[in-house]
Amino acid sequence: MSSEHPPVMLVDGYNVIGLWRHLQEMRDLQGFDIARSHLTETMVNFSAFHGYKTTLVFDAYVQATPAKAERITKNLKLYFTDHNETADTYIERQCGKYRRDPLRHLKRIIVVTSDRAQQLTAVGFGAEWLSATALEQEVEATLRSVQSRQKPQKANTNNLLGNRIDSKTKAQLAQWRNRLN
After folding, report:
1. Alpha-carbon span 122 to 94, nearest angstrom
2. Domain containing residue 119: CATH number
3. Is residue 80 part of a domain?
4. Coiled coil where (predicted)?
5. Is 90 exposed, middle or buried (CB count within 10 Å of its CB: 0-12, 13-18, 19+)?
6. Which of 4, 47, 147, 177 could cross-link 75 (Cys pair, CB 3.0–4.6 Å)?
7. CA distance 124 to 147
8. Total structural domains in the chain?
């Protein structure tokens, strides 16, 4: 994939919240907003790391509100569906656009859901499919990879100025420092 056509990831947000245990617990104890915020934060980092253009899709099916898109970062946006529209419907529409795109051979679209009918539909449109559980495992693996890269390196004390100057110079510097105090 070229950077001109980064992979697109469409995530059925409530499906993921319902299947990731820690998000289920947040949803049940603190509400959907907290679980949604946590998923959003997780996907900001994951999407940036992998260079995905991710859309977290949330049903607004029972709410009488118009569809709303909210850009979080250059790699992540939230999409709240229109009244009487499901996340599945929105994702299917995006997959249909992908299938009709004359440049689709240059592009990659990944649908994240554990809904079996949605999996079959996405694959039928030529998209890749990833279960909510597989995404969770990829997120955890990415986090471990990032953490292992960020482990503090043991300081090389040979490069410290105090270890490279002779004892006479060290004594002279100490005298000057004591006079300043």
Report:
1. 10
2. 3.40.50
3. yes
4. none
5. buried
6. 47
7. 37
8. 1
Domain containing 91: what range?
A: 8-149
Q: What is the pLDDT of residues 120-171, one digit of tens each?
A: 999 999 999 999 999 999 999 998 888 888 766 555 666 666 677 777 877 7
Helices (H), the chain: 13-19, 21-30, 32-50, 87-100, 116-124, 132-149, 161-164, 167-180
What confidence score (pLDDT) does residue 1 get?
47
The one-character DSSP state at 63 is S
Q: At what angle do helices 87-100 and 116-124 cross, to 10 degrees?
A: 10
Report how far residue 58's alpha carbon sits from residue 40's, in angstroms, rounded to the nearest whole number: 11
What pairing do the DSSP bridges indicate for beta strands 68-71 and 128-130?
Answer: unpaired
Q: What Å distances lie between residue 54 and 12, 45, 57, 95, CA to CA?
A: 11, 11, 9, 14
**Which two three-digit tokens encode residue 47?**
């999407």
pLDDT, residue 61, reads: 59
Rounded to whole angstroms, the Cα distance separating 55 from 68 reads 12
- The answer for residues whose C-beta is within 8 angstroms of residue 50's C-beta and 6 or more apart is 7, 142
